[in-house]
UniProtKB/TrEMBL annotation:
Keywords: Signal. The keyword Signal applies. The keyword Signal applies. This is BIG2 domain-containing protein. Residues 1-21 form the signal peptide.
């Protein structure tokens, strides 16, 4: 009986010794300190970032992490119609508006947020309608206002290529008629329309020749028929010299 009690006492001491020496059980280091828990950190360098429609933005450029890898983070957008993620961490703007993006740890509730603003792009013609004479040219750049968009993103089209021709940003009038010029931001429905009226400007002498008496005078403007031309815009030249159109005297212009 005494022997049995002694064996039970020895066994109890052995089990207590094993339990006390188990570092994992009490989470105690060799130095006797309890290790601090690992804390994940996810932060964005900026709280707001602006992009354009169809622009891609790598979210990792402004993301900082600690004790967590990028692969252990989920990225979401509160308003995917404005901007959404493609290829994991690349954000693409879709239309003008705002959304909140979230970087959420897959292992815990640790997360960070950033506001994304998709800016408005706009193209506007300075006037609704212009008039060009046949063979006249017009550079469209000075009459177009661009907001958050560059010229290489603009597509110019005419609804009738017989009346006008477009070369780069230059519009060339070919023959009489009306044409609509559409200026569209590529890959969007953002368009501005310019109405172009092409007219024929023409000067025709009424006669091939006239007879004049000595010391007679004549108004040269009376000798021509004008089509879509203001008489005040006409300049007369004689031997490469501009002259007064009001009269001829003694067979000389003056």
């Amino acid at each position: 009986m005494k022997l049995r009690i002694l064996l039970v006492f020895i066994l109890s001491l052995f089990m207590f010794s094993c339990s006390s020496s188990d570092d994992g059980g009490n989470n105690i280091t060799d130095g006797g300190e309890v290790p601090k828990p690992v804390v994940e950190e996810i932060t964005f360098d900026v709280l707001t970032h602006t992009i354009l429609p169809n622009e891609e933005y790598d979210i990792l450029k402004n993301l900082r992490v600690k004790n967590i890898s990028f692969e252990e983070i989920n990225f979401t957008s509160d308003n995917p119609e404005v901007a959404s993620f493609v290829d994991g961490t690349n954000l693409v703007g879709h239309k003008t508006g705002e959304t909140i993006i979230r970087a959420q740890s897959k292992k815990s509730k640790v997360n960070a947020t950033m506001k994304i603003v998709v800016a408005e792009q706009k193209i506007v013609f300075a006037q609704d309608e212009i008039v060009l004479g046949t063979l006249e040219e017009l550079d469209l750049m000075p009459i177009v206002s661009l907001i958050n968009v560059e010229w290489d993103q603009i597509e110019l089209k005419a609804d009738n290529s017989e009346n006008v021709r477009i070369e780069g940003t230059k519009l060339i009038a070919l023959k009489e008629g009306e044409v609509l010029i559409n200026a569209t931001i590529k890959n969007t429905n953002n368009t501005s329309i310019l109405k172009v009226k092409v007219i024929e400007r023409k000067i025709t002498f009424k006669e091939e020749s006239i007879d004049m008496a000595v010391d007679a005078s004549v108004d040269l403007n009376d000798l021509v028929e004008l089509k879509n031309i203001d008489v005040e815009t006409i300049k007369w030249k004689y031997n490469d010299t501009y002259v007064n159109p009001l009269c001829i005297l003694n067979n000389r212009f003056f």
